[in-house]
Design goal:
It is built from four helices and no strands.
Length: 126
């Protein structure tokens, strides 16, 4: 798809994947211990939701490539933060290794997509 074929941020696969993951993280963290509600659960929910939110906010900045890339970097930072929270969830035995791997693999896909957008903003900017 060329940049003029995108109707909006919802057309971006990276947005779709990150949005879906945010919903899945919310469901996953419902099984965490109550003492984690205001610590790990809160951090995971905020970071996972921040990725698609940053992508959506970034869409409005497309006419300014440097600003566009800056906001993508914010989304990428949240993605990397999610990897840490998933590692901790595994180490605390709140999730299984299979669950960890499943989520990490999708976050790594998102990371690659964000990296590609960061290095090739002209495909999206006008």
């Amino acid at each position: 798809m060329e940049n003029n074929e995108y109707r909006g941020f919802r057309d971006l696969i990276v947005y779709q994947k990150s949005y879906k993951l945010a919903i899945e993280i919310t469901d996953l963290t419902k099984t965490f211990p109550k003492e984690e509600k205001y610590v790990l659960v809160d951090q995971m929910r905020r970071a996972s939701r921040s990725i698609p939110a940053n992508i959506a906010e970034d869409w409005a900045r497309r006419r300014y490539p440097k600003s566009f890339v800056s906001k993508l970097i914010d989304a990428h930072g949240e993605e990397m933060e999610m990897e840490v929270w998933l590692d901790m969830s595994l180490d605390f035995k709140y999730i299984t290794k299979d669950t960890h791997n499943t989520f990490i693999n999708v976050y790594l896909e998102i990371s690659k997509m964000l990296q590609s957008m960061e290095t090739n903003p002209s495909k999206f900017c006008y």
